Amino acid sequence: MKKLADLVIRLGNVDRRWIFLIIAIVVMYPLFKPLGLPIRPTESSQEVFNVIDALPEDSKVLLSCDYGPSTKPEIHPMAVGVMRHVLNKGHQLYVTCLWPDGVFMAREGLEQVAEKEHGLTYGEDYVLLGFRPGNEAVIKGIVSDIRKMYTIDSRSNPIGNIPMMEKIKNIYDFDFLFSASAGFPGTIEWVQLAADPTGIPMSTGVTSVQVNEVMPYVDSGQIIGILAGMPGAAEYEALIGKPDIGTSGMDAQSIAHIVIVLFIIFGNIAFYLERQRSKKKF
C-alpha cells in the first residue's frame, strides 16, 4: 500500500508538459479517426432535419454561408451536412454569401459534396452565386429581384446562361432557406428581412455563443429549429447518417473533458496522500 501511495505521489508531481502532451494526443486522435461516441439529437436539430427531409420533390433550396475560417470548426460541418442532405434528396441547391470568406467555405463544401461525392453538374444541380457587398441590402435585393443583385455567379458565368436560374427571380421562387451564420450579417437579418416578411420556411445553424440571441426567433416559430454550435453539427451528421468533422470534433472534445476530469481527480488524490504523509512526519 505504501509503494502504491509513493507511486501516486510521484505521478502527482509529474512535469505539466507531459499532461499537455497527453491531452494533445487524446484530442488529435479522434480528429483523424472518429470514435463513434453515441450522439442523441436534440429537438431543435431534429426539427431542422425534419423540415428539410419533408421538402417536396425537386425543391429549390437557398443556403447562405455567412461565416469565415475563425468559426469554421463550428459552422462548416453544418453547412456541409445541409448540402449533403439537400443534394441527397435530389433538390437544387443555390448558395449565396453575405461574408467574403463565405465564398471559400462554400466552394470547399461544394467540391467535397456536390463534385466528389455526388458527381453533380454545376449550373443544373447546384450553383454558387457568391459574395456581394452590402449586408442587409443584399438580402433585400434577393427578396425583390435576385437578377439585379447577381448578374454573374462566383465563376463569372452570366446568370442568364445558368440553366437552374431560368425560373428564379426573387426569394418567392425558393422553397426553403438555410442560414449558416457566425454573426452579422447572418441569421437575424435573414429572418427579419426575408423569411418573416415573405413566409418562406427557414432554418439556421449558428455558433454556440449566438444561440441565446437567435432562440427567441425559434421559439416564436419564425425559424424552424436550430443547429447549435459543434454539438448541433454532430447531431445533424448523426441524423443524416454521415459522420464527418462535426462528429470528430465532438469526440475530441468529449475525450478531452474526460481526461481533464481524471487528471483533476488523480491530482487531488495525490495531494491528499502527500498531505497525510506530511502530517505523520510532524
Task: Name the features.
single chain; 282 residues; alpha/beta; Rossmann fold; 2 domains; six-stranded parallel beta sheet; 11 helices; 6 strands; 55% helix
Description:
This protein has 282 residues and is an alpha/beta fold. The chain has two domains: 2-35 and 250-281; 43-242, Rossmann fold, CATH 3.40.50. The protein is built from eleven helices and six strands. It has helices at residues 2-12, 16-32, 43-53, 72-88, 102-117, 136-144, 146-149, 187-198, 211-219, 229-240, 245-281, and strands at 60-66, 92-97, 126-131, 176-181, 202-206, 226-228. A six-stranded parallel β-sheet has the order 3-2-1-4-5-6, sandwiched between helices. Helix 3 (43-53) packs across helix 10 (229-240), helix 4 runs parallel beside helix 10 and helix 10 packs across helix 11. The radius of gyration is 24 Å and the shape is elongated. The model has no long low-confidence stretch (mean pLDDT 90).
In short:
By secondary structure, this protein is α/β, with parallel strands linked by helices.
**Uncertain regions spanning at least 5 consecutive residues:** none
Largest sheet: 6 strands, parallel
- Secondary structure tally, helices: 11
Which CATH class of the largest domain is shown? Answer: Alpha Beta
- What is the H/E order? HHHEHEHEHHEHEHEHH
Q: Judging from the principal axes of the Cα atoms, what is the shape?
A: elongated
Could you say what the CATH topology of the largest domain is called? Rossmann fold
SS content category: alpha/beta
